[in-house]
């Protein structure tokens, strides 16, 4: 029997502000060169917090330290040329990054790290990978913060329970 249940893509994003500028990445996409928050997909057996640290390192060569849970966001993306209709569920975290590791290569498709002021981020909205790029930064700038503990990860994520038939 085929499972016809709708399944959104779960992603994570890092929102990093330092001295009035926000960390973004510039990446090659099917739609061209876009700006995005350091972000990516949640992998099996990985907590959202682990995923955001991993994705930020892969895309920026910087170690991300989550300090707050920013929020849960949803967006839908249509790509008619490929017949794609994708809904994303994004868990966004705010925090800090260390200096980039000069010996670490960025993920395929990532062109560079970019630091932009809030006004520059707003002005570049046409180049954003999704509307969530600006929305997450706007929420951060407005002071939205939640404790990291608001996201609960059950121990079964790493050691699943085995149910007898």
From TrEMBL:
- Name the protein family: Belongs to the Nudix hydrolase family. NudJ subfamily.
Q: What is its EC number?
A: 3.6.1.-
Write down the PANTHER family for this protein, in alphabetical order: NUDIX HYDROLASE 23 (PTHR43222), PHOSPHATASE NUDJ (PTHR43222:SF11)
One Pfam assignment: NUDIX
> Gene encoding this chain?
nudJ
Q: How does it assemble?
A: Monomer.
Nudix hydrolase domain: which residues?
Answer: 5-138
The protein's organism comes out as Leptothrix discophora
Q: Which InterPro entries match?
A: NUDIX_hydrolase-like_dom_sf, NUDIX_hydrolase_dom, NudJ
Q: Which Gene3D superfamilies match?
A: Nucleoside Triphosphate Pyrophosphohydrolase (3.90.79.10)
- Name the cofactor(s) required for activity, per the record: Mg(2+)
The top EC class is hydrolase
Q: Which UniProt keywords apply?
A: Hydrolase, Magnesium
- Molecular function GO terms recorded: hydrolase activity
Protein name from the UniProt record: Phosphatase NudJ
